[in-house]
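Input sequence (658 aa), recorded before submission:
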Amino acid sequence: MKSLWNQKEAEQCENELDLRVYSSRLLGQDKTLVLHGGGNTSVKINEKNILGEDESILYVKGSGWDLEFIERPGFSPVRMEHLLKLAELKVLSDSQMVNELKTHMVQASAPTPSVEAILHAILPYKYVDHTHADAVVTITNSNDGLQRIKDIYGDKVVILPYCMPGFDLSRLCADEFRKQVTDKTLGMVLMNHGIFSFAGTAKESYERMISLVDMAEDYIKQQKAWNLLQVNHEVDEHVSKHLEIARLRKDISDRAEKPMIVHFNAGIKYLDYIHRENIGDISQQGPATPDHVIRTKRLPMLGRDVDNYIEDYKQYFKKHATGRKQAVAMLDPTPRVIIDHEFGIGAVGATAKDAAIVADIYDHTVDIILRATALSEYKALPASDIFDVEYWELEQAKLKKSGAGPVFSGEVAMVTGAASGIGLACVESLLARGAAVVGLDIDNKVESLFQRADYLGLTCDVSIQQHIVQALDKGIRRFGGLDMLVLNAGIFPKSRNISELSNEFWREVMQINLDANLMIMREAYPLLKLAPKGGRVVMMGSKNVPAPGPGAAAYSVSKAGITQLARIAALEWGADNIRINTLHPDAVFDTAIWTDEVLNARAESYGLTVDEYKRKNILKTEVSSHDVAELAAEMCGPLFSKTTGAQLPVDGGNDRVI
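Predicted structure, token format:
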């Protein structure tokens, strides 16, 4: 561990809360300390209220904020006096506790305070930091973990046994901390949960955390349990597995009763883990910390038997739900982590972001499991403790409040010609509706258009079949399947009369505008058949199909060809619940082919201004790439669920088309 504290940056902080924000972000930048909203921090500040009275306020991380990006509004200000009184209660339900926290904030618009706010309040230090450091969790989850923690830290930390987060943990801390604390105490270890540090300044509390975690890392290294790789396994990248992965995703989605994203990673680290002889034992012990169960479920699925996994989950639920004071409804029983010898490690989520979070968490879990095993034996908490967190009343309340996601949540789209113009606009429209999108383009800028979990940009020449197969394979490994296909890639060649058409020119246009689309449809067909809500294809035709012009024979024929291809596919694929529709755009001027020079020349030839030329249609309106993309996205949605084989103009009204 290395301290990231920069004194010059710290001196830019104007007050104690700014320092709290600064040091919290330093913790959040290190994924071995906290992941995706994990951990929490606080600072106690004396302030005057509106009546001019002095009050001690606990600023504690608010629900929904991530330490890596937290800002001042991410800290909830709660009155210390009330928190300390709550700590003296013998019983307080978690829902009551949350109500007390929310009703005793001094800022009504602040987020709900962390459920560990009372614990932060009773620790007699100005700054308190709490992380789920991998190294500490590794040791506490190993056999003889308690003794190992004592050997590492001696009297530097207070040690608490595992306790359910929330009020129960606060009560335990209130009782035990006073008994164990000394003038040498630098922190507190919660077994199977994480570690606290605290001090009078932000810098000292932060650097104590770094020092304490560094001691745990050094211990693991001294025990020869740090380096993990044993055997270098490899996946044959020449053998495509995307159809089998799509079938598995279909099985999971059907049983979850909604489309799911499935992301597979077959990196060296994961293959080494998967191929260990004891994988069936070490992977089936439970999560590294109980809060991970909300994302990963208690156990990964070994192999691809979804029905068997679900049956085991139902038995787990029945066993631990029986006899509870409050009835709980069973959550979706499908897996969130998959361990497969051929595919690698899979992460499952309702969205690409959810799947990415699962992947991150299990990535750290693999390290923890292997290092704990190398120390002695990985030993997670009993299933009953994990169940308590998975079905915690606060988490149940969150689930009840969460509504339906965007219309394409859990679904996957592929867009060709995605780097600019109509293709780029289609990517944006599909992302806005919740889809995960694979963008293909011969221009490599497609790879860097968006830096987000739900987008994968791939450089691809769609006229080469091998490129298409490779793109599908990468897309399926990233997201698990294919639900929607927008075929937009094409070229608009310079005007050329039939008498001047060469065979080479003709074939080039046909190869890109027609043949490439046939290849993509043929390769995508078995994947679209597995789309949980039915496959959808939108073909980008042209006004030139119903109303061609002179000098555009090759372009017009190629677009007419894909229109006819779409009609025949609609006839052939309807029985597979795949619908295919075609759009015919015209005069979309915010694309690469319409330079200022070309626009001025065309407008002048009609005796019009550029603005008049752009609106040279019946509705006197300008058609944008966004307009076309929005209709393309809607054609994949429920509004067009009973429509296939259709052709729609997007041209503002063209007299020749009408």
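Checked by second reader. The longest strand covers residues 40-48.
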